[in-house]
Amino acid sequence: MTDQEATLEDTSNVPSEGMPAMEEDRESTPSDDQPRAMIEAVGLSKFYGPFAATRDVSFSVSEGELVAFLGPNGAGKSTTMKMLTGYIAPSEGEARIAGCNMMENRIEGSRHLGYLPENGPLYPEMTPLAMLDFFADARGLSEDIKQERIDAVVEICDLSSVLYKPVSKLSKGFKQRVGMSQALLHDPDVLILDEPTAGLDPNQIRGVRKTMRRLGETKTILLSTHILQEVEAMASRVVMIYEGRKVYDGDVQTLRDIGDGDLDQSFHALTKDESIQEPAG
What we know:
Elements: H1 3-6, H2 21-28, E1 37-48, E2 51-62, E3 66-70, H3 77-84, E4 92-97, E5 100-101, H4 106-111, E6 113-116, H5 128-138, H6 143-156, H7 172-184, E7 190-194, H8 202-215, E8 220-225, H9 228-234, E9 237-242, E10 245-251, H10 252-258, H11 263-270
Parallel strand pairs: 3-8, 3-9, 6-7, 7-8
Antiparallel strand pairs: 1-2, 1-4, 4-5, 9-10
């Protein structure tokens, strides 16, 4: 619910005789325990001439959720994430981060957002430490908290052993950690991560999963992947997209049930069938 809706006055609020006014108020007021929507896709579509990269994609991620954004290569995951972050403009629809429309109020929305694209923004000639210092200045972090935040992300992403090595000399796993560190540098409420385990070896993937579980304790996370093991290892909810359209939004167990207990079969069924699967409740 928007602030405007929440504060809309009801001039007919005076109850008639015998009517339970308290019940009326309870029904019209949202519960204080209801989680806040931190990521919202509202009818997002992106057209390139006659080609629709995405069409009418809608979902939301509530505060504290870690949601897997699943789909085959070319399904429209990266395009949707770029619209959510304000990197590209939607042809139709609206993207909101922490309530901020990312086309109209992107700067404010970006204060709440950490974004790791599929190929992170790394400068190969810089060291991780120099790059974090640069990004801290670009983010406008004050001197009194800059070092504190750099120390925090170095610890979270386990970068202490490579702080003074040029990024070009690092393994892909460490490059992913450096990219993650810049996304976390300003301590955002929301993380949008585009295939953070792509191209990593099993040990590196294990490290990313550990970091995700730790971050999921305090952050709202949307993590894209086409790897089903990632879904089982990290997420409690899945949004699946296929050929630019949402085909599933629900919990992992319900997704597994679609394929008679086999996530591979569920994935195959949903990416070969055009019907929308939206679990009740």
